[in-house]
Amino acid sequence: MIHLGRIEGHTHPALDLSTALPPLPTLSDKDDTVIDVFITYCLPMCSVLTPARVRDLYFRFRTAPSTLGLDQTALVHMFLASGYARYHYFGLRGRAAHGVPEASRQDVAWYRHAVATLTHWGSASFTSLRK
């Protein structure tokens, strides 16, 4: 079982859920690239989402975020967190990991906001994954 509240010793300090929530990153054009990275490298490990579903949720998040439920918003935050983690460590098409300056860890902020959003909502919804 995965417990989101457990912090391992080697993780980024801002992942500690008892610390202040970092500010939500401002959306930029780079996020479009990061979504592509997520779809290319992370999505193949997920059997319940399609590239079209990811792009639709992300487009709605960028253009009309009020049309998303809290569970869907958290899902987009996780797309961005996973995409940024992959992008920061491997680059756009790289296969060799490299170090990431702590100040540029946008994946951490997106992850924390995904957890916070789900905490507000109460539980995850499978329906957000099925549409």
Radius of gyration: 14 Å
Distance between the termini: 26 Å
Strand segment tally = 0
H-E order: HHHHH
- Give the count of structural domains: 1
Shape: globular
Q: What is the percent of helical residues?
A: 40-55%
Average pLDDT for all residues: 81
Sheet with the most strands, sense and barrel status: none
Count of alpha and pi helical runs: 5
Q: What is the compact description of this entry?
A:
With 131 residues, the chain is mostly helical. It has helices at residues 30-42, 51-63, 70-90, 106-121, 127-130.
Please characterize this protein's 3D structure.
The structure is a single chain. This protein has about 130 residues and is mostly helical. It has one domain. It contains five helices and no strands. Helix 1 packs across helix 3, helix 2 crosses helix 3 and helix 3 runs antiparallel to helix 4. The two termini are about 25 Å apart.
Keywords:
mainly alpha; globular; 5 helices; 131 residues
Write the layout of secondary structure elements.
Elements: H1 30-42, H2 51-63, H3 70-90, H4 106-121, H5 127-130
Helix pairs in contact: 1-3, 2-3, 3-4
